[in-house]
């Protein structure tokens, strides 16, 4: 007998009181998006758990995808039967035989949610244990360290059998904590920052500064590819591409070289904040890690942060580069980030940027320049792309493959 | 025309040629170029890699594009030897390998490596125990083909993989050129470290192939240069050919799913037809063999005469393998199976694709019958 459903246990949201409905709704939506290519599945959610009814779709592929969905504590492929003991016994044996390999031990864990069921937990354990032992030669019980734990759950309307408990990604469903704008440069850090905020339920929209011809189509593609990796988690991520050439040229011309980096970051933040306002975001997310480069010293952050009151989330702030790289490898963005294309941060790098810029000084330099019209223009000409997993390429080359 | 020489090469699918053409005309850029044309070529390359990896159920990073089976086998074997010659200098292979494996081994022997050739039984299969016995402290590589190109016999790859897994120093290479699209092989389940495939054997184009290198396995590159293919194989990528191969593989695996049973039926029909003809001996084993190859000898006739006799009727078959058929040597696989030299010299190989039909099979049998009768008259 094949698994016909996947049982999903909620993560922290079980504790979230009145907001629970919202969490479950978001989780269901995210799962639907991630599994949208499996047309036959059905998702049923209740307060305690969620079921994906497979209806013949490939369970193994779905399991792989579910491992990355935030808000899931654990999940188990399962089968459902009615409460007729003979049917239950047959189902349990079929399922067990499919998974069991010679020499493996087992135990049975019964959860009797239906307290009115005529057999108690011990009786159920004994009946099913005996049934398996009788029918599978040389099978042994090991209650401490079993290779297989057959879980039986007796609920009011049905019984569920399951042999595996797969850990989920934890965290909160993406979108359940509101929306933030992720400043995505194309480097190693920012996708990781995006990933970690998504883990705590933030829905992200990516903002990328694009400076043609100083940066090429490939650096843009790189950012699209990175966004796609993030979209794999939530099913869809918006990417805002901001034309930045004019502003960068103006800064290079008007601001003293050692302060140009500080001003550039301040303007990026101002523009991102505008985009946030237009898209109803509540925060800005960056991949800054304290002391990593000139713009990420506390002095720099103090001078740059000056342009906005919007909360800035810096999930990587206390992390070492090696820790960040580990995560980027795990989420499959490292290789893309490491491609050697110029991006907006690497083009106009001054020889010796100020590591301890003064807020007053940078304000003073900027006071001579009319940035507002350029900022409005950049915001106006922003190109917004909705990135969904794999959508980008396939359309373009369609029938070639 | 009835084409029954699909183990030599296959006819490229029309859709595959269309992709090749389109990529060659519209996306001819060098994937390493920085401009948009190069960017598109690179995208095509990575999409092809993803598709092939997915179809083979491996990771994208594990696919290395090459010019075909011969190159993949050379890289796998010599690359391993170069990389690990410090660990040991002993390599194990079988007596029935393709020349690109065998000759690579011979070259390594000249360089001071010790090569053990494992014999096969009368069905053309190696024994796992023989391999185990041959393993020594010095062994760094075991290379065994999956489906034999001359007889279609299938080697016990999974069992060999399980054996080699016990020896952390030894890499396992499999030549999967004849098996792909016909006999499924799960690289990871079989503990394979290196695996060769070739595009033109599954309706792709000549000059395209790939080598699977399991993640974590490092071998020395043979081509030095611009560092393409993760520095493993320099040289501008054959983007059009690679995209064509990705499509060919997808189409072939689809056909496999739907038509492999039919192919087996066609082959059985040929087998039964041949068995009825006087003086014909079939070398392909009944069990553990691929669905598309059947090898037989006709008593008293040179294989070459017979190939031409069938060609007159528009039927294309082969004497032994295409790679060895121009040299008048008896098939080494058959000799290794213990077939007498005279019989081995008169062996014919019929190899099917999913394009072949039952009618063609019947027609083939009729033509063989006619040819045998006619030639016997001439010879006696």
Automatic annotation (TrEMBL), chain B:
<feature type="domain" description="Aminotransferase class V">
    <location>
        <begin position="2"/>
        <end position="363"/>
    </location>
</feature>
<keyword id="KW-0408">Iron</keyword>
<dbReference type="InterPro" id="IPR015422">
    <property type="entry name" value="PyrdxlP-dep_Trfase_small"/>
</dbReference>
<keyword id="KW-0479">Metal-binding</keyword>
<dbReference type="GO" id="GO:0051536">
    <property type="term" value="F:iron-sulfur cluster binding"/>
</dbReference>
<dbReference type="GO" id="GO:0031071">
    <property type="term" value="F:cysteine desulfurase activity"/>
</dbReference>
<dbReference type="Pfam" id="PF00266">
    <property type="entry name" value="Aminotran_5"/>
</dbReference>
<comment type="similarity">
    <text>Belongs to the class-V pyridoxal-phosphate-dependent aminotransferase family. NifS/IscS subfamily.</text>
</comment>
<dbReference type="InterPro" id="IPR016454">
    <property type="entry name" value="Cysteine_dSase"/>
</dbReference>
<dbReference type="InterPro" id="IPR000192">
    <property type="entry name" value="Aminotrans_V_dom"/>
</dbReference>
<dbReference type="GO" id="GO:0046872">
    <property type="term" value="F:metal ion binding"/>
</dbReference>
<keyword id="KW-0663">Pyridoxal phosphate</keyword>
<protein>
    <submittedName>
        <fullName>Cysteine desulfurase</fullName>
    </submittedName>
</protein>
<dbReference type="InterPro" id="IPR015424">
    <property type="entry name" value="PyrdxlP-dep_Trfase"/>
</dbReference>
<keyword id="KW-0411">Iron-sulfur</keyword>
<dbReference type="InterPro" id="IPR015421">
    <property type="entry name" value="PyrdxlP-dep_Trfase_major"/>
</dbReference>
């Amino acid at each position: 007998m094949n698994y016909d459903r996947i049982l999903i246990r909620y993560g922290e949201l079980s504790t979230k009181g009145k907001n629970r409905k919202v969490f479950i709704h978001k989780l269901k939506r995210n799962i639907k998006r991630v599994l949208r290519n499996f047309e036959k599945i059905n998702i049923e959610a209740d307060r305690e758990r969620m079921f994906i009814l497979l209806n013949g779709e490939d369970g193994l592929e779905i399991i792989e995808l579910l491992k990355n969905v935030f808000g899931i504590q654990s999940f188990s492929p399962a089968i459902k039967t009615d409460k007729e003991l003979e049917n239950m016994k047959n189902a349990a044996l079929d399922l067990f035989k499919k998974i069991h390999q010679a020499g493996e031990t087992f135990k049975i864990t019964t959860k009797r949610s239906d307290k009115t069921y005529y057999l108690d937990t011990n009786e159920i354990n004994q009946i099913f244990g005996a049934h398996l032992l009788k029918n599978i030669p040389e099978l042994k019980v090991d209650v401490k360290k079993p290779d297989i734990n057959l879980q039986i759950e007796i609920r009011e309307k049905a019984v569920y059998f399951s042999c595996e408990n797969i850990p989920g990604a934890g965290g909160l469903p993406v979108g359940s904590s509101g929306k933030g704008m992720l400043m995505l440069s194309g480097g190693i850090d920012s996708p990781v920052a995006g990933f970690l905020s998504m883990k705590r339920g933030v829905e992200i929209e990516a903002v990328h500064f694009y400076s043609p011809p100083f940066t090429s189509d490939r650096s843009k593609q790189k950012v699209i590819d990175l966004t796609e990796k993030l979209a794999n988690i939530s099913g869809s991520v918006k990417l805002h591409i901001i034309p930045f050439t004019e502003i960068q040229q103006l800064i290079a011309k008007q601001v003293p070289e050692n302060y140009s980096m500080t001003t550039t970051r301040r303007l990026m933040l101002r523009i991102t904040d505008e985009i946030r306002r237009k898209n109803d975001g509540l925060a800005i997310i960056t991949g800054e890690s304290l002391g990593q480069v000139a713009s990420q010293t506390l002095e720099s952050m103090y001078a740059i942060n000056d342009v906005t009151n919007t909360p800035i989330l810096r999930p990587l702030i206390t992390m070492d580069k090696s820790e960040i790289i580990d995560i980027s490898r795990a989420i499959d963005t490292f290789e893309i980030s490491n491609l050697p294309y110029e991006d907006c941060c690497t083009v106009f790098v001054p020889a010796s940027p100020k590591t301890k810029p003064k807020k007053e000084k940078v304000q003073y330099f900027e006071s001579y320049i009319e940035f507002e019209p350029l900022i409005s223009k950049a915001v106006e000409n922003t190109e917004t792309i909705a990135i969904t997993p794999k959508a980008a390429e396939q359309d373009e080359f369609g029938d070639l493959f | 025309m009835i084409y029954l020489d699909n183990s030599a090469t296959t006819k490229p699918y029309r859709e595959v040629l269309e992709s090749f053409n389109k990529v060659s005309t519209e996306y001819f850029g060098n994937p390493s170029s920085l401009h948009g044309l190069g960017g598109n070529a690179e995208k095509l390359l990575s999409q092809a890699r993803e598709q092939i990896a997915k179809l083979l159920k491996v990771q994208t990073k594990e696919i290395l594009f090459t010019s075909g089976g011969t190159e993949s086998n050379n890289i796998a074997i010599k690359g391993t030897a170069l990389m690990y010659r410090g660990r040991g200098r002993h390599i194990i292979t079988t007596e029935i390998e393709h020349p690109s494996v065998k000759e690579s081994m011979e070259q390594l022997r000249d360089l001071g490596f010790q090569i053990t050739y494992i014999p096969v039984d009368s069905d053309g299969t190696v024994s796992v125990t023989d391999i185990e016995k041959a393993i020594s402290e010095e062994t760094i590589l075991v290379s065994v083909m999956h489906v034999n190109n001359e007889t279609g016999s299938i080697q016990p790859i999974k069992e060999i993989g399980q054996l080699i897994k016990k020896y952390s120093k030894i890499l396992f290479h499999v030549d999967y050129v004849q098996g792909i699209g016909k006999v499924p092989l799960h690289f990871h389940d079989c503990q394979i470290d290196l695996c060769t495939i070739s595009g033109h054997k599954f309706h792709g184009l000549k000059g395209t192939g790939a080598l699977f290198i399991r993640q974590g396995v490092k071998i020395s590159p043979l081509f030095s240069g611009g560092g393409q293919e993760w520095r493993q194989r320099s040289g501008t990528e054959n983007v059009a050919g690679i995209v064509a191969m990705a499509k060919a593989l997808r189409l072939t695996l689809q056909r496999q799913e739907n038509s492999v049973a039919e192919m087996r039926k066609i082959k059985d029909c040929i087998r039964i037809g041949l068995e009825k003809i006087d003086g014909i001996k079939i070398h392909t084993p009944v069990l553990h063999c691929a669905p598309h190859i059947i090898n037989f000898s006709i008593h008293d006739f040179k294989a070459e005469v017979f190939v031409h006799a069938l060609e007159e009727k528009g039927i294309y078959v082969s004497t032994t393998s295409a790679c060895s058929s121009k040299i008048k040597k008896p098939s080494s696989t058959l000799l290794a199976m213990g077939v007498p030299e005279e019989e081995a010299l008169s062996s014919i190989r019929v190899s099917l694709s999913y394009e072949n039909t039952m009618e063609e099979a019947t027609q083939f049998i009729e033509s063989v019958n006619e040819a045998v009768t006619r030639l016997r008259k001439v010879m006696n």
